[in-house]
Amino acid sequence: MDTAIPVSKPSGGLRLNTAWPLLLGLAALAIPTLISLGQQVWSKESGAHGPIILATGIWLVWRKRDDIMEHAVPGRPWLVALGLLVSLPIYVFGRAYDFMLLEAAGCYGAFMSALYMHVGERAMLRSWFPLLYMGFLVPPPGWALDHITAPLKLFVSHVATQGLQAFGIPIINQGVTLIVAQYQLLVEDACSGMNSLVGLTAISLFYIYLLRNASWRYSLLLVCMVIPIAIVANIIRIVILVLLTYFFGNAVAQGFLHETAGMVLFATSLLLVFLLDNIFSQVRTWMRRS
Fold it and tell me: Which one is catalytic: 65, 107, 122, 191?
């Protein structure tokens, strides 16, 4: 009588008892970068979304851990070597010369290369969103944000000025400078919330992926609405800051209420995204029924 011998399935998963040197090396890269991000990027309003993305991104990856390990197969060594050869010099250069974009990008590339080495492309493709989502931790270049937001700042300053003039507020605008009574306000500073487009896009994608699991077409449609939502929110923000300055003085407007207005309007932008998603979902349901 033949005896069946069970055959164990080889696993390419990451085992802590053998991978601790790699984990220590990655920690040595990540910890200084996270500290620099906290000091240089996350402490500013435009980068305040960073800790949220880090926490939710780690949770998403942990949530997919079983699926990742089930399909894990060691990656191609030459691709791992190529990824590290590209990522590590970028990290070292960015760290040495204080280029936060390059440092964070190099650290992210090193992590992706190490993950690919242990789980391969199939497992990574099955978990593409959490890995792509973590890429939002890399701060976009300032010149790109300035180039994108410059015309938006001109637009929102003009719209806000026209709206306030309609209600009798003595205000004029000269480019991105608003003159109200004896005060001058720079939209360059007051409209820094336009730089929250990155965080708003990331959190909107997180919401779509987690609660809707929608197609890429629907996701793209909703993400495209982020820009007009951010414009509307920042027009409201400028109006609030102008009114605070006009009625209560510059010290009040540029103090605690200035920061509060930014946080409240970022939350308002998110609520508008959720509202649009609800409307679009109801429209799609109605169209299917009819």
Answer: 191
Spatial CA neighbour of 191 closest among 224, 226, 145, 131 = 145
Percentage of the chain surpassing pLDDT 70?
Answer: 82
The alpha carbon of residue 94 and the mean position of all alpha carbons in its chain are separated, in whole angstroms, by 20
From 122, 237, 284, 289, active-site residue? 237
The model carries a pTM of 0.73
- Rounded Cα distance between 229 and 98, Å, is 33
The tens digit of pLDDT for each residue in 79-136 reads 999 999 999 999 999 999 989 999 999 999 999 999 999 888 898 988 888 898 999 8
User: What is the CA 248 to chain-centroid distance, rounded?
Assistant: 34
Q: In the numeric block, which tokens belong to residue 25?
A: 């090396």
237 is catalytic: yes
- The CA distance from 223 to 226, in Å, is 5
Cβ-count burial 18-53 (b if 16+ within 10 Å, e if not) = eeeeeeeebeebbeebbebbeeebbeebbbbbbeeb
Domain ranges of the chain: 16-137, 142-289
Structure tokens at 89: 């010099």
**Rounded to an integer, what distance in angstroms lies between the CA atom of residue 261 and that of residue 245?**
13
**Assigned token pair, 5:** 């011998």
8 A C-beta contact, residue 154 and residue 175: yes
